């Protein structure tokens, strides 16, 4: 019977399983996540080589004129050394995991989750997936609020495959697409904002300012993508008191 149970466990039937319990479901980028991992033994004793915790997000990748949804790791840590778990035994491990400052914000179609994976030789590896809500860091939130304060409405937020020119730590960039309202409605089609890098003291922004077509000359400019201006700028904590005015000045130069 024991041998039969081992065979079943090797394909995931009656094997050990895992359940991760986070302290909460909403975090701010840059925060430390804490919780417990409960490993429950199955019908037979098993050797757990290690446990990994990975923060994943989804992003859109284009290939051969088609769009695919992929996942990418934002952070991955090893949380245990090898150990054995007996049949029916419960083990609980505490953990802490850093959520990087440049973790995508769960706005629009962006999803972020913590995945727990047990590495068991010659067996199906058990896993657990916990979706979380990620809010922007204080500085990133200030930038997004300033853009909204200028009369822009967030229309879409999505992680897309990054080009080689702008690729950083990850294979994607999160794009925030804003629709103009108020005075900007007659001048712009849209404004896109990307956080290229972030720290506690500064963020590097890439802004795509898409002007509205006016007349035949502008129509040709749009066909050649000449109606779009790309602006790269750095915002620091010292800019916060006058942040909205600084962004307004940048946008106004490209109307």
From TrEMBL:
InterPro entries, alphabetized: Spore_0_M
Top-level taxon: Bacteria
Pfam families attached to this UniProt entry: Spo0M
Name under which the protein is recorded: Sporulation protein SpoOM
Organismal lineage: Bacteria, Bacillati, Bacillota, Bacilli, Bacillales
